[in-house]
Amino acid sequence: MNALPLSDIQRAAERIADTTIRSPLLRLPVDDAPCQIYLKLENLQPIGSFKLRGAGNAIQLADPNELAKGVWTASAGNMAQGVAWHARRLGIACHVVAPDHAPQTKLDAIMRLGGQIIPVPFAKWWNTLVTGEFAGLDGLFIHPVSDPAVIAGNGTIGLEILRDLPDVAAIVIPYGGGGLCAGIASAVRAIKPDTRLFAAEVETAAPLAASLRAGEPVTIDYRPSFVDGIGGSGLLPEMWSLVSNLLDGSLVVSLDEVRAAIRILALRARVIAEGAGAASVAAALSGGAGGGKVVCVVSGGNIDMATLAGILRPD
Question: How far is CA 216 from the centre of its chain?
């Protein structure tokens, strides 16, 4: 897979303009940070996540006859919400293959949107991502990561960042399967190629960093944590050449650093971020993205309230 053409991303921006918000870009007021941190607040989308963009673009590009049979995806929560939100808008059925460790907060949101959940063990869920097949499900499968239409929808975030902050020095992007990184990087490399572009991963699930060190895709020991929106045991094969060529590296942060970033976002900016969404901020605060103006993509805010309360509660 090659970087997406800029024209595909620009057309996606026009296509999804009526169903997504142009999320704000705000300065994070932290005086002692190693850089000027700006927050791209995708947690403010109607479903609390950037996934609405890619899901909407893919569905609008689909054959109406295929859509009439319904849609389905494989997701731990946010992409499922994006697909279910659009399915409800169109009055079509939506099924979600979800890993059995998915947080209840996200599962509840999927059901509120009308999605029907099929829980499976992580290995079976991962196999569904790799093959794009699941026995008994019909209709349009929307891959949460590698579908070019989904990546193009994600890339619209990059267009907005460059319009709002033309002199951005670096962008830090949470890395789940690579679709968000690939979309934003495709847009930014086409317009401002000297921008530093980093993935953000968490120490318990950082296959991209391990693969970049090895020079080829490798598998790791994946440990689930409260940072449920990113990470895995390996990379999707079709994403390796794309992200390894587009990104300048992966910044790996600890769980404690993510917790600290969640607290800073809540207390300094009144922003609620899930673990994945705060990972980019944790990486920038660590100094890994360098100096200057650094945009952190706050990819989502769908955190379990009990988890959030535990993180915010003083020791």
Answer: 22
pTM (2 d.p.):
0.95
Question: Alpha helices, DSSP H only, in 113-269?
Answer: 122-131, 148-164, 179-191, 207-214, 237-246, 255-269
Burial category of 288 from C-beta neighbours within 10 Å (exposed 0-12, middle 13-18, buried 19 and up)? buried
- One-letter amino acid for residue 187 of the chain: A
Tell me the two tokens of residue 123: 């290995």
- Other beta carbons within 10 Å of 120: 17
Residues 125-166 have pLDDT tens digits of 888 988 888 988 888 999 999 999 999 999 999 999 999 999
Give the residue among 309, 278, 303, 314 at the shortest CA–CA distance from 109.
303
The pairing of beta strand 196-202 with beta strand 116-120: unpaired
Contact 259, 207 (CB under 8 A): no
Q: For residue range 185-230, what is the model confidence (pLDDT) as tens digits?
A: 999 999 999 999 999 999 999 999 999 999 999 999 989 899 988 8
Extract the tokens encoding 236: 């999707």
- Beta bridge partners of residue 201, listed in sequence order: 252
Question: Which DSSP category does 291 fall into?
Answer: S
- Residue 46's CB is within 10 A of a number of other CB atoms, namely 12
Are the beta carbons of 141 and 72 closer than 8 angstroms?
A: yes
Query: Is 90 exceeded by the pLDDT of residue 291?
Result: yes
* Whole-angstrom distance, CA of residue 20 vs CA of residue 45: 7
Phi/psi-derived region of residue 130, left when phi > 0, alpha when psi is between -120 and 50, beta in every other case: alpha
